[in-house]
Specification:
This protein is mainly beta. It has two helices and 28 strands.
């Protein structure tokens, strides 16, 4: 028996070595190198009706921040209340909420086209958030629509009707999930997430979640997470997990969340208006708090406002809007919560979005 067992072990070991040898020759493991970031852009929201949105550029090599980068390039400001932006292909897309347009620039930040978001009679649609999808970019607007912009012609192909006052949007597979806040109907908020079929660009379903949904993010396992603020009174904030395929609600917990990002098996979340001021990590399976404070080295942030993550190296960027009336600050942490660097956004107020640049 012992001899037979020994032979089996030797045979198994030989097979493993042979398999490893074949795998080494035929199927080499490709390790994608981490490319250092050249720098990053920060969109500073400004304040409502003050027409003071700005763009800051931080150069990683010189460790310096350029003041009002967009105005320096174009001779005019970005407009009133820059809410979101992305780099997609060779272009930047800036969503300017109160001014009601999407400003498109080239990779150097020079104007290419301004896409007005105006409804019947010139009424402002008030765009809010943007995501890329194939050769389109999708933009939510407070008028209850999501715009489909063609990235070649830079024209709006279609407006998709969704729920009231939509906020953040997220792509999961071939669907778009839209958080309908109903924020203009205070204190009677919306409580739905629109599901949009991205083949037909039509709403096909609404999922009922908590009151006043705002932030939404998808993971890489077919789930979507929605942060609901509540009504600021007797209905508290919740975090809801939705199956992106069946649209079933898998779990709901009482938890205040402002903005979220998913990376490497965790949800990173700012506290929002009703939180404790700490950036948390959340277990996506259980929605339990994995870490009550992501920052581990004692670095203090006055008011966490935005959060973005470098998917290549796991660096976490947290924006601090201070008191909303003075220039903000951007902090970079490694994936263990230790500070790597920080810089001010003078004169930028309310920094809310970071985009990492690799040329």
């Amino acid at each position: 028996m012992k001899t037979r067992t020994l032979k089996l072990l030797v045979a198994a070991l030989s097979g493993s070595l042979l398999f490893a040898s074949c795998q080494k020759e035929d199927d080499p493991v490709v390790v994608t190198p981490v490319t250092p970031a050249d720098g990053l852009f920060v969109l500073n929201e400004g304040t409502f009706f003050a027409n003071n949105t700005t763009l800051t550029y931080y150069d990683a090599a010189t460790k310096t921040a350029t003041t009002d980068f967009y105005r320096n390039k174009n001779g005019h400001g970005l407009g009133d209340t820059g809410n979101d932006f992305i780099k997609y292909g060779t272009k930047f897309y800036f969503v300017v909420n109160v001014s009601s347009y999407v400003q498109v620039t080239n990779s150097e930040g020079v104007d290419v086209k301004k896409i007005d978001f105006l409804g019947d009679g010139g009424v402002k649609r008030e765009p809010r958030y943007i995501v890329p999808y194939k050769n389109k970019v999708l933009v939510s607007s407070y008028d209850g629509t999501v715009a489909v912009i063609d990235t070649t012609s830079l024209t709006i192909d279609k407006f998709i009707t969704v729920g009231s006052n939509p906020e953040q949007i997220a792509v999961a597979g071939d669907k778009l999930f839209v958080a309908n806040s109903g924020g203009f109907s205070y204190p009677v908020f919306d409580s739905t997430v629109s599901v949009v079929d991205l083949a037909s660009y039509t709403e096909v379903h609404k999922v009922k979640v908590g009151k006043n949904p705002g932030a939404v993010v998808a993971d890489n396992a077919g789930n979507v997470y929605v942060a609901c603020t509540g009504n600021y009174s007797d209905i508290g904030p919740t975090l809801v997990k939705i199956n992106a395929f069946t649209h079933a609600i898998l779990k709901t917990v009482d938890l205040p969340v402002g903005k979220m990002r998913f990376n490497n098996g965790l949800i990173y979340a700012t506290p929002g208006y009703l939180g404790d001021g700490k950036v948390k990590t959340i277990n996506p399976s259980t929605l339990a708090i994995a870490s009550a404070n992501f920052i581990t080295d004692g670095t203090s942030i006055t008011s966490p406002y935005g959060i973005d993550i470098d998917a290549q190296n796991g660096d976490v960027y947290i924006t601090d809007n201070k008191n909303s009336m003075s220039s903000g600050e951007v902090f970079c942490f490694d994936n263990t919560g230790k500070k790597k660097f920080s810089f001010g956004t003078t004169p930028g107020l309310n920094p809310n979005k970071v985009v990492i640049i690799r040329k």
